Amino acid sequence: MPDVNALRITWIEARRSAALWLGALGAAVAAAMLGDPERWDGLWMQTVLVHQANLALLWPFAVAAGAWQGRRDHAARVGDLVRAAPRPGASRVAPLAFVLAGALGGGWIAASAPGIGRAVLAASYRPPGWYWPLLVGGLAMGAAGLLGLGLGRLLPSRLTAPLLGVAGVVLSVVPLVIWRGSDAPALLLVPGNLGESTDEWATVATRADVGQALWFAGLAAAGWALYAGARYWSAVPAVIGLAAAVLVLPAADRAAPRDVHAVELVCADGTPRVCVTRLYEPILPALVGPAREALALLAKLPDPPTSVVQETAPYASFVAQRRDTVHLLLTVYGDGSTLDLTNAVLDGAGTWACGAPDDDLATWDRILAAREAAALWLRGGTSADPLVADALNALRALPAADQAARVGAMREAALACRKDQYETLLRPN
């Protein structure tokens, strides 16, 4: 049977303290940070990962909130009276600690409900284990509150809460800036950090979840001990949690690997072959018609592609292109709409955008102009861009067979990721 007196005291503490209000404030801020009208609702796991990444700013808030509550007895000048009460230290502080940790952790988890709810309605793929990062994040927020409680009681100054908040932001940002590009597992101790390789197909490695949970559990126990008055051994749980976490955590670049099921191909019935990743399966019906229309237009070129497959590599990165396949970069907006899918397939005569370093903007201008000119030649149309217009005018001034040959030559240059795609379109070798 639950202790009725303990429940009653906890309920009184919930009403008389600001813990619930702090939890509600944290939840409201977290929900606002998670909302993104440009993110497609079908990206279930990405919604979870964005929510977890926001811990970088919400975790310092939770520490500051705990510190503000931790100095309550001192501010009311009843600290000595409370400590003189004939009750063990742990049971004396348990109600507020429980309420604050529950409000902050539970509020943070609840803030994900609107985004997860929209994902349930829009997504066809539910990533396995999607809830573990949410539970770890809730533990992190609760641990931050408990740590703040302990530090607020130890240092009951009015400056403690704001200084801890600032320190939390610094500790969440500075290590990632100083050691940018490092794969050290210790960087995963920073709240919200899962490395730099997360994208919409990412999941969270089990070792990353477990390691972070051990670290935050150690911090929670340290905060509890400090708040209960055990100053001398309060650091022990944090040290144990840190040691255990470092042993378990993977390298930072392996914390958020690709979900192999999310990138599995799902193909439409019939021919030509049109496929997307399982994550984007709801978009497949809208893609089939435009993709097959584009393949029919590409058929006028020498050795044309015969299928369209969604590509999962980042834009402008190197891709080992197949000659018979259009590697499509599929972009879906928040309302579920896409760019002109036919034109997306025709871009670059059905090739992947590549050919120059990211910082070589002049070359990229010419590559993109060549790609647009090839698409407009295939589909028909004009452009106000001088580079594109010059290429189109030069193409259309040639006999029909020579026009197709030049676009075919440009396609060969794009398949090889050469930087002379624009020049090839105008003056093929």
TrEMBL record:
Keywords: Membrane, Transmembrane, Transmembrane helix. This is Uncharacterized protein. The chain crosses the membrane at residues 18-35, 47-68, 89-110, 130-152, 159-179, 232-252. It comes from Virgisporangium aliadipatigenens.
